Amino acid sequence: MAELLRTHPLEAWRADFERLPGTVGITVEPYVAVVDVRLGTVGAEASAALGVDLPTAPNTWVPTGTGRAVWLGPDEWLLTSTTETPEELEARVRAAVLPLGGSATDVSAQRIGLRLTGARVRDVLAKGCSIDLHPRVFGRGSSAQTTLGQAGVVLLALSDSADDHVVLVRSSFAGYLADWLLDAALEFTSVPLTHDR
């Protein structure tokens, strides 16, 4: 049987992303394993079982060593791993939370990550996002489920200076959002973008 080549849904946008100036950088994040965790009670027992303290403050995320733990709701989190396969992460997390009455579901194919860096990133995001992105309010460790250019996203702040964010968007909206971000960034670049897709 022939080997199937894994192609990123945003492969056709990479050249345009690479032409953007340093003031607005967009890069496609590599594939990562992602598990949606549902757990009613979070405490020392859950932290010990998972090997990570899940964030309990609304709209926050924490690094986990090999990924991130993102608060989605009072009983829901996204856990990511750059070193485990989706199957390995799901099995490990499920084994940890099942005895505590929780659940774990692999959602690795559900979202695409885009990293936005540079001095004008907040300006680009503000064109299509109504939340306050000022670093005093949305600094490192902040997250939000919001809309960006009418696409539902999870937005993560990676720095306290508003110049480094990750946008998690559903795979089916990734192309639309990539086009939207390129259009929003045009104001800050003199380089023509092709949009040959």
Automatic annotation (TrEMBL):
Superkingdom of the source species: Bacteria
InterPro entries xref list: SoxG (IPR007375), TrmE/GcvT-like (IPR027266)
Protein name as catalogued: Sarcosine oxidase subunit gamma
